[in-house]
Amino acid sequence: MKKRHLPQKICVVCERPFSWRKKWEKNWGEVKYCSERCRRNKN
């Protein structure tokens, strides 16, 4: 799959778009944060 065809979501913390990653393959539907840093600073 080419990078421009990867699915994208918007991070709920920083509100920036982020693309699908191989490590999220099995739980892409549950991913909300673009990075570990945003996940920790969700407040």
TrEMBL record:
Q: Which domain of life is it from?
A: Bacteria
Q: Name one Pfam family in it.
A: DUF2256
Q: Which InterPro entries match?
A: UCP037205
Query: Which protein is depicted?
Result: DUF2256 domain-containing protein
Originating organism: Spongiivirga citrea
